[in-house]
Amino acid sequence: MLVARTIHALRTALAEKRSAGRVGLVPTMGNLHDGHLALVTAAADECRTTVASIFVNPLQFGAGEDFEDYPRTFDADAAQLERHGVDILFAPGVDEVYPDGRADTVVVAVPGLSGLLCGADRPGHFDGVATVVTKLLNMVTPDRAYFGEKDWQQLVVIRTMARALNMTTDIIGVPTVRAADGLALSSRNQYLSQDERRVAAQLHRTLIDIREAVASGERDFSALENQGCSALASAGFEVDYVAVRDAETLAEPRDDGRALRVLAAARLGRARLIDNLRLVTG
Ligand code: PAF
Question: Counting C-beta atoms within 10 Å of the first and last residue's C-beta, which end of the chain has fewer, N or C?
């Protein structure tokens, strides 16, 4: 596995490989767990050359969020990526990605979508994600790029952006990887104390309850959202939202047969946890 720290080194390495077949990109912020490795495995299965990036993107962290504390475990991450078949690890510094400085960088914004749900609680977060993903896609120009379905809103923002900006990369969503009790894997789970970790699986159980109610015919989505919020608050969460939404647009559901998703975000101690599930309405 080649480690490229600059865009020039990345492009030089890719120039030799591109003609051999499809290039896949797995963008990450490092501190890898099995959820990231599922993205890498999907990319390695489908692509001739797999590029993974590790870059803790300052632009997507708000004031008072965990940018400084975000766990950085480069050596362990690099070893895992190599074992899982990554050909090129792109690990640029902040100056390589934002040579004009954070304040003067050109920002990519996806209006509407970026202000909903997690965007309402984390203003500017999705502009930071859309900007860095645009940059990474332009640096690597992959045929496919892989993102976890755990961050469903992020996936919708990136798909919408790629379509709107006529990008040629296919955006691939990979199913969420969960612990045995259902908690979606996340680098931020390590902020949970032992007691909080036991409670955390309630987030997934709450979404399952909503999924089962909808599968049995319940269509009062507001009532289900309120029940979900109450269940989480009783378990000790500080709830940001529980929302049933159109899976592709994140708009409020209408009775039009479109695919639906239930999404939730809630804080437990230092950790802000998110999760989502597909709803079966047919
Ligand atoms: O999902 C993440 O880890 C990040 O938001 C991403 C897509 C790597 C952009 O920094």
Answer: C
List of E strands, the chain:
2-4, 23-28, 49-54, 88-90, 144-148, 170-174, 238-246, 260-268, 271-279
Measured between alpha carbons, how far is residue 245 from residues 1, 87, 154, 176, 250 in Å? 41, 38, 14, 18, 5
Best of 25, 26, 28, 156 for a ligand 1 pocket test (most atoms within 8 Å of beta carbon): 28
Mean pLDDT of the chain: 97
- φ and ψ at 254, to 5 degrees? -120, 165
Ligand 1 site, residue 31, Cβ cutoff 6 A: no
Q: Which position has the token pair 């984390």?
A: 122
Question: Is residue 25 in contact with ligand 1, taking CB distance under 6 Å?
Answer: no
Q: Within a 13 Å sphere around the CA of 101, how many CA atoms are in the beta-carbon half?
A: 2
Ligand 1 center from residue 29 Cα (angstroms): 6
Q: 2-17, pLDDT tens digit by residue?
A: 999 999 999 999 999 9
Which residues are marked as active site? 36
Q: Whose CA is nearest to atom 9 of ligand 1?
A: 129
Residue 282 has pLDDT above 80, yes or no: no
Q: How far apart are CA 194 and CA 184, in angstroms?
A: 16
Residue 133's pLDDT is 98
Q: Which atom of ligand 1 is nearest to the CA of 57?
A: 10
Alpha helices in 141-282 (DSSP H): 152-164, 194-200, 202-215, 221-235
In ligand 1, the atom with minimum distance to the C-alpha of 55 is: 10
pLDDT in tens, 229-263: 999 999 999 999 999 999 999 999 998 889 999 99
